[in-house]
Write a structure and sequence with these properties.
Elements lengths: L2 H8 L3 H10 L5 E2 H8 L3 H13 L3 E5 L7 E5 L1 H14 L2
Antiparallel strand pairs: 1-3, 2-3
Helix pairs in contact: 3-4
Pfam families: MarR (PF01047)
Protein name: HTH marR-type domain-containing protein
Keywords: DNA-binding, Transcription, Transcription regulation
Length: 91
C-alpha cells in the first residue's frame, strides 16, 4: 500500500469503512435507511455520516420531494479509497 493510501485508510474507522461499503452499493441513501441497515438510531447514523462528510467521503443533499430528508451519496474519493483497499486485499 503506498503512503497516500495508508494515510487515507488510517483516517477512517472500521465502522466508517463499513458504512462506505454499504453506501457504495446504491446511488443514494437516506439517513433512516443507513440507520436501519446498521441497526443503530438515526442520531448515531447521523454522527457517522457527519464525520464522513467532513472527510469529503460523502455528500448530503436535501431530498427534492421531502426537504426534511437528506440523500446520502459517496464521493469519488470514497470510491477510490474502497477500490484501493480492495486492490490491496486481492493482489
Amino acid at each position: 500500500m503506498n503512503a497516500l493510501r495508508r494515510a487515507a485508510a488510517s483516517t477512517i474507522t472500521a465502522r466508517q469503512r463499513e458504512v462506505l461499503t454499504y453506501l457504495a452499493q446504491r446511488d443514494h441513501w437516506s439517513v433512516g435507511e443507513v440507520a436501519a441497515l446498521l441497526g443503530v438510531s438515526s442520531a448515531a447514523a447521523t454522527k457517522v455520516l457527519a464525520r464522513l462528510e467532513r472527510k469529503g467521503l460523502i455528500t448530503r443533499t436535501l431530498n427534492a420531494l421531502d426537504r426534511r430528508c437528506a440523500d446520502i451519496t459517496v464521493t469519488r474519493a470514497a470510491l477510490a479509497l474502497l477500490q484501493a483497499e480492495a486492490t490491496d486485499e486481492n493482489p
